[in-house]
Write a structure and sequence with these properties.
Rossmann fold, five-stranded parallel β-sheet, alpha/beta, single chain, P-loop_NTPase, about 55% helix, 8 helices, Thymidylate_kin-like_dom, binds thymidine-5'-diphosphate
């Protein structure tokens, strides 16, 4: 059986990534792939319980980081690795880059904490492609305002989200082969076309 594909989707809240995950799933299904969708924080019963806690209970930054990675470990072991071993195309709404962007960039936790923790928890499990939906914090906030009620992290101010955005930019600069920046400031059609262009470039024979 061919090895699976692990693709993650990232961006500040309101960037619109959730809309495009469905379109990417359709793109791969139309080419015969066995697609599985998941998300972080969450993706397993235990990690979904942790998600509920981390998004709604008050806590310090390091606790927030450790809960994200606790859920991630369970997700990797019980969902991601089995899916990849079964040859699936796993599309994940957020993964470790979100911890570097939010808890690193946004909360200010140092790379000296994040990097060893990520290595330890992931043990080599890493997306082969990450689509980063990038847009200014102000524009994302305007989009969020018209959506549902904000959770604990979404209630942060514009400066926080600009730091998160800078955190993503730093990750993308470190891993340019893996992380594809998508300009998310356009219409759904325009952003969708940019996503398809990346996919066609990456998977020409797919
Ligand atoms: P999100 O994908 O925005 O869920 P939804 O669209 O359903 O609200 O993820 C929830 C929040 O979790 C989001 O604000 C980003 C945050 N987050 C972190 O802070 N660190 C992480 O490691 C992950 C995976 C998410």
């Amino acid at each position: 059986m061919s090895p699976g594909r692990f693709i993650s989707f990232e961006g500040i809240d309101g960037a619109g990534k959730s809309t495009h995950i469905q379109a990417v799933a359709d793109w791969f299904r139309a080419r015969g792939a066995d697609v599985q969708l998941s998300r972080e924080p969450g993706g397993t019963p235990l990690a979904e319980t942790l998600r509920d806690i981390v998004l709604h209970q008050p806590m310090g930054s390091l606790t927030e980081l450790l809960l994200m990675f606790a859920g991630r470990r369970d997700h990797i072991e019980t969902v991601i690795r089995p899916a990849l071993a079964a040859g699936k195309t796993l599309l994940c709404d957020r993964f470790t880059d979100a911890s570097f962007a939010y808890q690193g960039g946004g909360r200010g936790l140092p790379l000296s904490v994040l990097e060893p923790l990520a290595d330890w928890v992931q043990e080599g499990t890493e997306p082969e492609l990450t689509l980063w939906f990038d847009l200014p914090a102000e524009q994302a906030a305007a989009r969020r305002a018209s959506a549902r009620e904000a959770d604990r992290i979404e209630q942060q101010d514009l400066d926080f989200f600009e730091r998160v955005r800078a955190g993503y930019a730093a990750r993308a600069a470190q891993a340019p082969q893996r992380i594809a920046r998508i300009d998310a400031s356009g219409t759904v059609e325009q952003v969708g076309a940019a996503v398809r262009a990346v996919l066609a470039g990456r998977y020409p024979t797919c």
